[in-house]
Write a structure and sequence with these properties.
Strand content: 35-45%
Number of domains: 6
Shape: elongated
Helix content: 10-25%
Number of helices: 6
Largest sheet: 7 strands, antiparallel
Structural class: alpha+beta
Radius of gyration: 45 Å
Number of strands: 31
Distance between the termini: 87 Å
């Protein structure tokens, strides 16, 4: 191969490399400056010609600085905030139509509805423990006969239970008959009264007077209709005075006991109406009322026991039946938003309100209860407003970076809560802190100091600007002077209220 041919090959190789370099550079420039949709982005105005409002740390956007420099909170440079970035961003932010479409952002309307504080729980039928009778022996004796009874039997009032032989009654009756034979009315009355005090019913005393014979055998009867809950008497046994023979539970009404979640127990009231639907009677609704709200909540299940009373004239309601209970509450108007529209941080709740196409601003709201997939808003919104229902977390992140604070509900005195990225804790407005520092720069309204750590605020030693409560405080101060100063937080600013020079 000739020397001329080799020169031509080398020259062609370099030309190809140059063309490739030009192509790569053009591609990078195109990628950097193109915008979605095929348009081109116009070159930005030079930062030297733009007006700077203030500088801020993106991680602590609520703290503003009057000059550039290093952030006192993070190891990074302060970022300028330009006047032409849009004054409306101080309270809201704008999102392009392309970003809205890419995020799949949806909105929902704040609705006003009439809601009732109904409580829907499960309940179990129980016997009414307020309708209980206990039959006892009124004198010592023997059980001659027990009628065919067993626990669980349903009996009528006045039905016989057992025949008792009571020797003490026989002796008292004979004494009464002897006194009556004396024909002394006052003594007879006193003897008759003694029989009553021994527990003899008036009918038995009348029988003794009529027949003139003592009646030692007495038939015990059921004092009320109901179910034999407990039977303690058996044929042939000896009974003592005051010994229990049977316990009867009335069936004219029954209880329905329910465990209401603690969070829903607040509106419950005695006498409150309720509707009961038992599994044994499908399609039938029974009316009940609250007769007792137990004063102690279950610590394990976090529920409150509620008892309702239900008439049971036909005795078809059986203990142990279960069903659904609806405790009716008062109906009242309320504002509702989808649950997914609310951002809950644990300390506050936010929603993003739509101001216009692509324009949003955060609002701090007060939450009520949750109904299905919607939350009750007690403050911060009005009916008819549009709120962001999806992708609001991305919008919230952008708002935090820009230092956009949420609007508080009307009448609220709460202060905005510092974002989690802040390394400084907010101080109470009335509390002052005194530390030492060195003056870096002095202006009529501001003093920049390198100060020692403030443990109460969890501040490390750092350099930061402070506002002056009075311009007179900065008189006679010069850079590199050592001072002891007192400051407090007023709104978003830290303000020096006193300065004392330290002699070297």
């Amino acid at each position: 191969m000739s020397r001329q041919t080799i020169k031509k090959a080398i020259l062609g190789f370099f030309i190809v490399l140059a063309l490739l370099a030009v192509g790569v550079a053009a591609g990078l420039w195109w990628e950097r400056n193109r915008v979605p949709g095929g348009g081109m982005e116009m070159p930005a105005e030079s930062s030297k010609d733009r007006t700077v409002l203030y500088w801020y740390d993106p991680m602590v956007p609520t703290q503003k600085f009057d000059k550039p420099g290093k952030s006192p909170y993070m190891d990074m440079a302060l970022v300028p905030k330009y006047a032409d970035e849009g004054a409306e961003e101080s309270s809201g932010l704008s999102v392009s139509a392309q970003a809205v479409q890419a995020l799949g952002l949806r909105t929902a309307m704040v609705e006003q509805r009439d809601i009732g504080s109904n409580v829907d729980v499960l309940g179990t039928v129980q016997l009414n423990d307020r309708d209980v009778s206990i039959v006892q022996a009124r004198s010592a004796g023997f059980v001659e006969r027990v009628y065919a009874r067993a626990p669980g039997d349903v009996v009528a009032a006045g039905a016989p239970l057992a025949d008792l032989l009571l020797p003490e009654w026989v002796a008292a009756q004979r004494e009464f008959l002897a006194v009556r034979a004396l024909k002394d009315e006052s003594l007879t009355t006193a003897a008759r009264q003694r029989l009553s005090l021994l527990g003899m019913p008036a009918s038995l005393v009348a029988q003794v007077e009529r027949t003139g014979e003592p009646q030692g055998r007495y038939t015990v009867t059921f004092p009320q209709a109901g179910m034999v809950a407990e039977l303690m008497v058996r044929q042939g046994m000896t009974v003592s005075s005051g010994g229990s023979l049977v316990r009867v539970n009335g069936l004219a009404s029954v209880w329905i006991e329910a465990a209401v979640p603690e969070a829903q127990s607040g509106p419950l009231q005695l006498g409150q109406d309720a509707q009961v639907r038992l599994a044994a009677f499908p399609g039938e609704t029974l009316n009940a009322r609250v007769v007792s709200i137990l004063p102690e909540a279950n610590r394990d299940t976090r529920t409150v026991r509620v008892r309702l009373e239900l008439p049971n004239p036909t005795q078809r309601l059986k203990a142990g039946m279960s069903g659904q209970i609806v405790l009716a509450g008062r109906t009242q108007p309320a504002l509702l938003v989808p649950s997914e529209a609310v951002i809950r941080t644990g300390k506050r709740a936010l929603v993003y309100v739509v101001d216009g196409p692509g324009k949003y601003h955060p609002v701090q709201v007060q939450l009520g209860g949750e109904i299905d997939d919607r939350l009750v808003i007690q403050g911060g919104l009005t009916a008819g407003q549009q709120v962001v229902a999806s992708a609001q977390f991305l919008i919230d992140s952008e708002a935090s970076l820009r230092g956009i604070m949420p609007a508080l509900p009307p009448g609220s005195s709460a202060q905005p809560i510092a974002e989690q990225g802040s390394s400084a804790s907010a101080a109470p407005a009335s509390k002052s802190f005194t530390v030492r520092g060195v003056v870096d720069e002095v202006t009529p309204t501001e003093l920049t100091l390198t100060h020692e750590a403030v443990p109460e605020l969890k501040w490390p030693g750092m350099t930061m600007p402070f506002k002056l409560a009075n311009p007179e405080l900065a008189k006679a101060l010069k850079p590199e002077q050592q001072v002891k100063f007192t400051f407090q937080q007023q709104g978003k600013d830290f303000v020096i209220t006193a300065v004392e020079r330290i002699k070297p």
